[in-house]
Amino acid sequence: MNKGKVFFIGAGPGDFELLTLKGKRYLEMADCVIYDRLVNKRILSFVNNDAEFIYLGKENTEGGTLQKIINDTLVEKALSGNFKNIVRLKGGDSFVFGRGGEEIEALNKYNIEFELVPGITSAISVPEYSGIPVTHRNIARSFHVFTGSTADGEGIQNFEIISKLEGTLIFLMGVKNLENICDGLIKNGKNPNTPIGIIEKGTTTNQKTYTTILKDIDKIVDKVTPPAIVIIGEVVNKREMYNWFEKKPLFGKKIIVTREKTQGEIFSREIEKKGGESILLPTIKLTDSMDKFDYSTLKNYQGIMFNSPNGVDFFFKHIPDIRIISNIKIGAIGSKTASQLKKYKIIPNIVPEEYLSENLAKSMTEITKENDNILIITSDVSPISEKELSEKYKRNFKKFIGYFNSKIEIKREILERNLKNATHITFFSGSAVENFFSNLEEISLLPNEIKIISLGPSTTKVIKKYIDKNIIQCEVYTSEEVLKVLESN
Ligand code: SAH
Question: What pLDDT sits at residue 371?
């Protein structure tokens, strides 16, 4: 029988990009993943969908029965013969209060092979995201990492020794015992005015930092919720100058993106770069139908209008020879469609000022003659009427549906979970709005205060069918503008 191999991967502290390249590569190979509570679920998207996903986590990392279940599950999966690469994914690093050692010992009993991929531990990275260096020249020449709780709940640490250390003190799992830790240090001689920082949910958009001095801990103790890092020492004061992450323009905002997956992912990255959290809930799927187009008919056309970047991609995916469009005038509906054309080395002849298909049709008259044939590449939901345009602009407009939009069903529990703490929702098209609300069933699932960002008037019109408050419409109909609106609202 072939035994599986177990890969212990440190997932980092929260920001999913703090995963290592090696960790990502192994996740891509995994056929079974066992993960815990502190792992950012975005990381799981690197794993093949067909893999088995097993969540084994609980509110606290200490705990005997759960650990036994984890050990047994690892062994069982490795011995089953059904899996080749089993990933054990842990928050931070597996060996920093991660109980990686116990799991390895369980595997050793059955001679199960394993490998370790270190992760970025929260002990240093969370303070860093809060602008607190763990060491600093002339201030702290060492840092010491402790657990702030023990399995048996007795004698957290030997404060007599700890309070004599000159370096920075860092406590993990310390929220529950915050007052005991501060008391223990003060009683054993630590200066009561020593700065202390507590950083909750570090490296995520929900990060919160509290700072005070040891003797004043009672003023903040009730505000803090785990997971949090406790950091004690003069280095905490550096935050005043080094704070960076919490100053990002979208920090603290949880934004739902309803866009089609490929574009939604690009947009999500932009949100994340600005410090926001993106929740990608695509409501639209696009299906290419350009393969049904007879490209030899292009010889009859004098113009082509592209109504979206997607249409451009599908059109060029199937074109047999680029030269067949060399004599055709090309119009793009807006800057995005124009830059998509540039990827295929086409500079559009015209891009109208305002992003509307009616305007593009009108602009096409500037570059074509009366009775010329103009092809429109568009989607099945486009309201364009070839007849109306042909009558109005004295050209023969002919529409070809280059791709179909279809609705993606989102499970109720996924919607509920993701909508719960969202601050903003973004809509880029009327069809995304329709699909989203038909998935929603009950409007009350939408948080009362949520701000609805609409790309433009036609999208807003559809939103208003369902809800008529907190709608903010962009003045320029581009995704850059949506980002700007998100920053200022
Ligand atoms: N192996 C992990 C630590 C597991 S112990 C690591 O290397 O980071 C769990 C403790 O880690 C939590 O109680 C908390 O103190 C700390 N922690 C982990 N992620 C955190 C985060 N994003 N923000 C604040 N503290 C975090």
Answer: 96
